[in-house]
Amino acid sequence: MSRASVDVLVVGAGAAGMMCAVEAGRRGRRVLVVDHAANPGEKIRISGGGRCNFTNLGCGPANFLGENPRFATSALRRFTQHDFVKRVDRAGIAWHEKTLGQLFCDDSAKQIVRMLVDDMAEAGATLRMKTGVDRLARSGHGWTAGLSDGSEVRTASVVVATGGKSIPKMGATGWAYETARQFGLRVTDTRPALVPLTFEAGLLETLTPLAGLAVDARVASAPGEKTRKAAFNEAMLFTHRGLSGPAILQISSYWREGEAIVAAMAPGRDVFEELKRARTDNGRQAIHTALGHIVPRRLAESLCEREGVAGNLADVSDKALRRLDQAVNGWTVKPVGSEGYRTAEVTLGGVDTAALDQQTLAAKSAPGLYFIGEAVDVTGWLGGYNFQWAWSSGWAAGQAC
Q1: Fewer Cβ close by (within 10 Å): the C or N end of the chain?
Q2: Is 56 helix (H, G, I), strand (E, B) or coil?
Q3: Which of 73, 134, 59, 138 has the alpha carbon at shortest distance from 103?
Q4: Is 178 helix (H, G, I), strand (E, B) or coil?
Q5: Which residues contact 326 (CB under 8 A, 6 or more apart)?
């Protein structure tokens, strides 16, 4: 058995792990990064449609969820989105702001991966792919790790950066959580987040004609015992399984089974008043045609059928118009579930932040053990926030490990 000695063993060559390795290496630490995948940064590579939504200009603690969402404040303030943008600029990577502060590469997400891999090499960190950790144990004042290639590594610090359980086809596992529990750290309940929501068969059948239709919407969580109030103004997409699109992915992080969501599909518009005015101007117009000037025609036809409203505007009562108004801007619907980790962009929950030092991400009860990135109970909104948490938490741990 070959044995090696390093200062820092980083487990996970994703966004947080590589960032940490760069920072630790720049401090003169001997760093080894291992990952069971074939290539580093695979989640970076596929993100943002292949262009990587690498941060958000409006990123702040308010954009994160967790038992203690303020936990992220220190790391986010010490290494900000603007700091990461400076690194991207120095690497000569062209980027653009798409919407709502979201920054994307002009060319390819592979440029971000290449930047991090090059920075690790320059900092002296060693990267070993197709290599996992089979066992981890305390050893004196440090740690001993048995690797999957049969070798053994002794290290002063271990940084767990293996992410959560989202997108298992890319090799995601719960190893970070198992490791945390092994050394006495609590792990909060975990669930898929930033994920499409699904409906029961009967409701799906009525919505089948709408599959593929997208509308700009305001989607809110219906107040409930388990739900924190939230609302998002973004696109909503009808699918063959239920609902998707940015607004739905966002609200999925707040939604819980048994509770409803409320969608306004013409936000900011008084549907009742617009239809009433149309009735005065052109009473011979069909109600679904008039409603089709406010929402997409397919949706208008579906809503009129669902509410039992038909005929010309002149024949439609105020009461019926109010029902359509409510159907458009107060659609309350109860999903039965989500599409799960298979399509979830992140995992909600993780290693309890109460067990970690806010400045360094070190485990309070296990000296030399660190948890960063998605493995921690810090989950961001859709739009580059989770990558910024990866950069910030990786940077913070890299200053201390």
Answers
A1: N
A2: strand
A3: 59
A4: helix
A5: none
| Phi-psi map region of 96: left, alpha, beta (phi>0 left; psi -120 to 50 alpha) | beta
Are the beta carbons of 33 and 131 closer than 8 angstroms? no
User: Tens-digit pLDDT profile for the chain (401 aa)?
Assistant: 688 999 999 999 999 999 999 999 999 999 999 999 999 999 999 999 999 999 999 999 999 999 998 999 999 999 999 999 999 999 999 999 999 999 999 999 999 999 999 999 999 999 999 999 999 999 999 999 999 999 999 999 999 999 998 888 777 889 999 999 999 999 999 999 999 999 999 999 999 999 999 999 999 998 765 556 899 999 999 999 999 999 999 999 999 999 999 999 999 999 999 999 999 999 999 999 999 999 999 999 999 999 999 999 999 999 999 999 999 999 999 999 999 999 999 999 999 999 999 999 999 999 999 999 999 999 999 999 999 999 999 999 999 99
pTM, two decimals, is 0.95
- Quote the DSSP letter at residue 376: B
Rg (CA), the chain: 25
- Give the long-range contacts of residues 290-297, CB within 8 A, separation 24 or more: 291/324, 291/328, 294/266, 294/269, 294/328, 295/215, 295/265, 295/266, 295/328, 296/213, 296/215
The neighbour count for residue 71, using CB atoms within 10 Å, is 22
